[in-house]
Predict the 3D structure of the following.
Amino acid sequence: MALSTRVSRLLGIDHPIIQGGMAWTATAELAAAVSEGGGFGLIGAGHMPTDILRDEIRRAKTLTDRPFGVNLMLLTPHIDDLVQMVLEEGVSAVTTGAGNPGKYMTALKDRGIKVLTVVPSVALAKRMESIGADGIIGEGMEAGGHIGELTTMVLTPQLVDAVDIPVIAAGGIADGRGVAAVFALGAEGVQVGTRFMCAQECTIHPDVKDRIVRARDRDTVVTGYSTGHPVRVLKNKLSRMLEELDRDNRPEELEALGSGKLALAMRQGDIDMGSVMAGQAAAMVCKVQPAAEIITEMMAEADLVIGRLASAVEG
Ligand code: TUI
């Protein structure tokens, strides 16, 4: 059985698995490997300079003929330039995070680029649907990085009830059981971040992959509540320092200390003083393996679980 949904048809992919748009992590290599594996790969733009992102897009095009996209992190100061360049280069779809992409919707859609917006709430999902979003990615607070307040379990069905466009569930999904669970809630696709950090093709430092593979159930923490931009990370020396600044309500110092620390973790491999953004599902990631294998395994397990449930219901 193959799970064919509006999401797989919209994006022209075999399996409705979208890779998370992880800054300093999701490079052309990972994006291409996920797309080659039948999912939808993305380059995580984050704060990337415009010309570097342009090179990444061009490089991804040399690595795969399959559709791939770019994740735009809307808090970045030069977001206008990044969008302009993406319009020039062209990709199949963009996912957006950390804000409201309303200002760019028409231009992207006129260029034939599909727009999937990450939302943490029902209200924003409805607004995005009304201005023409092609799909909604509902990201629960189990996810890594910048998060909202709601869990995947309660956000997903509410989004499904609130909008007519397809809903993609994100946050806490790292295996086929998670896929089956959110499909039961009405999702038509999943976004997977943390497990793809441990894809062989992901170019982050091997010490970060090793740290994720070793992660246990309670190893993540959310810091930065006092700044208004809470971020889930793996616990380490930096997260303890940030927690203390949160407790003392010192958001400016917290932002200063956090600045540049994502790159320190992902590129330099400093897992003590770097910001190791990862979701709660880190505990469920057991090994480093090719992206295509991750996709195949997740889909095969989802098929098995859904089949088992169906026969249990039949009695
Ligand atoms: O964006 C993410 N995850 C991220 S972005 C990031 S970089 C960063 N670093 C430090 C502080 C902030 C960002 C690391 N991880 N996920 C998607 C996501 N989007 N999660 C939550 C949201 C979101 C939040 C508010 C989306 C829209 C939104 O709307 C506010 C509004 O304008 O209505």
Notes: The chain is about 45% helix and 15% strand. The mean pLDDT is 97. The chain has two domains: 13-204+286-310, 216-277.
